[in-house]
């Protein structure tokens, strides 16, 4: 493994967590390298338009990342957007599309927020969470065969076809997610994030239907 490349990628991941930007010293301390090394790494990332400095010399992500990210899961995002918008309009809740990354985490690939709701849940696209927390991860784990010691919520999700979580990713936020039935290499989940779920079964049915329709489009 290239240590230099690893450190450069660590900087990008660190800047994702701090959208307001970081100083060079913050970056050096954050990835555990000398300030001179951090300076060289940042200059290289700047040359590729992956990060930038403002007039206060704070470093943040730059537009070059958009160009790199655009082709990633493009078909999935293109097909999912109308379904997420429809789900959001029907529930006045924030809808989400997540993908599994490796064995132990999920990434928020797309968020659609309601336009008319008095208040709604807001997440950042690209957010990474541990797979054992939140409805998205629980739904993806429920798609696997049962394992000894798994959470009761996973077994319940396997039975119902969707997972529900309460305050596991963010305080007071309810998550409802179903796995997208697709045989491709990407494991994905589609669902809702909301503050109240007075009719959990109805919302679950809507999520399952949207996930099923997305799976049919991906065939």
TrEMBL record:
One Gene Ontology term from the biological process aspect of the record:
negative regulation of DNA-templated transcription
Ranges of residues in domain HTH iclR-type: 2-63
- From the Swiss-Prot or TrEMBL record, what is one GO molecular function term? DNA binding
A Pfam family reported for this protein in Swiss-Prot or TrEMBL? IclR_C
Record-annotated IclR-ED domain positions = 64-219
| Gene3D superfamilies reported for this sequence | 3.30.450.40, Winged helix-like DNA-binding domain superfamily/Winged helix DNA-binding domain
Judging by the UniProt lineage, the source's domain of life is Bacteria
Q: Which UniProt keywords apply?
A: DNA-binding, Transcription, Transcription regulation
Spell out the protein name for this chain: IclR family transcriptional regulator
What organism is listed for this UniProt entry? Prauserella flavalba
């Amino acid at each position: 493994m290239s240590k230099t490349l690893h450190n450069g990628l660590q900087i990008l991941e660190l800047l994702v967590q701090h959208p307001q930007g970081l100083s060079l010293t913050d970056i050096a301390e954050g990835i555990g390298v000398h300030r001179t090394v951090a300076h060289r790494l940042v200059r290289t990332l700047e040359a590729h338009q992956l990060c930038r400095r403002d007039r206060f010399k704070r470093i943040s992500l730059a537009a070059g990342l958009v160009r790199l990210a655009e082709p990633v899961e493009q078909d999935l995002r293109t097909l999912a957007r109308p379904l997420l918008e429809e789900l959001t309009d029907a529930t006045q809740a924030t809808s989400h599309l997540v993908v599994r990354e490796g064995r132990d985490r999920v990434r928020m690939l797309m968020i659609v927020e309601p336009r008319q709701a008095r208040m709604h849940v807001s997440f950042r696209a690209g957010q990474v969470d541990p797979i054992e927390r939140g409805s998205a991860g629980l739904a993806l784990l429920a798609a696997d065969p049962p394992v000894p010691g798994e959470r009761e919520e996973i077994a319940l999700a396997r039975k119902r076809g969707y997972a529900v979580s309460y305050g596991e990713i963010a305080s007071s936020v309810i998550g409802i997610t179903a796995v997208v039935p697709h045989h491709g290499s990407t494991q994905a989940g589609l669902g809702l994030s909301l503050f109240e779920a007075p009719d959990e079964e109805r919302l679950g049915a809507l999520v399952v239907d949207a996930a099923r329709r997305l799976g049919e489009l991906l065939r």
